[in-house]
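Appendix B, record 7
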Amino acid sequence: MNKTELIDAVASETGLGKSDATKAIESVVENITRALRQGDKVTLVGFGTFAATARAARQGRNPRTGESIKIEASKSAKFSAGKELKTALNR
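Structure tokens (predicted):
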């Protein structure tokens, strides 16, 4: 499912117009992104938790040349599925 399909599904299930459903989906994504950028966790009970994790700088290797390269430190998003989501996936 891509973003357009998700918007269509939300619009049809809630009775919202596509423009309102688009605004709602984009608002959710923007707010999750903003919270993670600030270092907060976002927990949707039963669905899961989004959290930002830090990756330390490390040495890597260019697979084409074998040359050693430095990989800079970065942040990444992590998602942990909640109990209800895990249960629904394993039915």
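Remarks on this record: The chain has a mean pLDDT of 96. Strands lie at 42-44, 48-55, 58-61, 68-71, 74-81.
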